[in-house]
Design brief:
about 25% helix; 3-stranded antiparallel sheet; about 270 residues
């Protein structure tokens, strides 16, 4: 992973110029994270200029307590493929729960969101994929997917906390970490999944910036050798207001084995 961690703030043009140089020399494997502190009054200009970059589809923007402009570069097609397959997997699983739903082209009651930009804590943030209830006044997602690799895992975990602590509509964040094979399993990439939720803080709430919930990892599994069961609660997708079309069902079970195979296919490796 290629990282650049400047301490002092810089102009938006300096940040984007440095980013272009880093991206041009980056390897095509894994994820690369570049850290910048841009002058606060130039952040919007930085976002706008970033949108014009040739590699924009492979770039995700986020932030942390220490850096206000963090760009994650994922040149591998594997990351886009993993997000796209998740979209399909969730949609098909929802439609399968609806009686006589084979004629449906869209899952009832929800909308899928791609690489949209959202305001979190006064700054911009992007996820790789997400879903939200269509009958809600809020355009914000309820379930978010973040894709990266182990070297970017710390930032992905910071991102999960940001989603949960800064956007109360988010019920669940899924982190998918994909890495090159290790010698013991040279025919398959390393695949790890984490689920993050909001939990009530232990201490009393006080102060203007007191959080009503903290982001916390609640589940983790390794899919390197075999994918295990994986489900998403309908209450998380629909924020507790599950449409009647889904009857007594309370969850969707994703085709985790097919999702894993799709990731392996996109990575250029084959499982045996």
């Amino acid at each position: 992973m290629n990282s650049s961690r400047p301490v002092n703030a810089m102009s938006f043009r300096q940040a984007i110029t440095t980013l272009r140089s880093k991206v041009a020399s980056a390897s095509l494997d894994g994820a690369h994270i570049y850290y910048f502190n841009v002058f606060e009054d130039e952040l919007e200009a930085a976002y706008s200029l970033l949108d014009k970059e040739e590699q924009r589809r492979a770039l995700r923007v986020t932030y942390s307590d220490d850096f206000n402009f963090i760009v994650r570069y994922m040149p591998s097609a594997m990351h886009n493929e993993a997000s796209a397959f998740w979209f399909q997997n969730v949609a098909f699983a929802l439609i399968a729960l609806v009686p006589n739903g084979r004629h449906l082209s869209m899952a009832p009651g929800c909308k899928f969101v791609g690489k949209r930009t959202y305001q979190l804590g006064g700054r911009e943030k992007q996820g790789d994929a997400g879903v939200r209830p269509s009958n809600s006044n809020s355009q914000n997602p309820s379930v978010i997917l973040e894709v990266g690799c182990s070297e970017s895992l710390r930032q992905l975990q910071i991102d999960a906390r940001l989603w949960i602590e800064q956007m109360l509509e988010v019920q669940l964040v899924i982190i998918l970490s994909i890495d090159p094979p290790v010698p013991a399993h040279s025919n398959r990439p390393r695949i790890t999944i984490q689920l993050w939720r909001g939990v009530t803080p232990l201490g009393p709430l006080s102060g203007e910036h007191a959080r009503t919930r903290n982001g916390q990892m609640v589940w983790e599994t390794d899919w390197t050798q075999q994918a295990g069961p994986f489900y998403i609660l309908l209450a998380d997708i629909f924020r507790g207001q599950v449409p009647l079309e889904y009857g007594v069902n309370d969850r969707i079970v994703l085709d985790s084995a097919a999702w894993r195979e799709d990731i392996i296919e996109a990575s250029g490796f084959r499982s045996q």
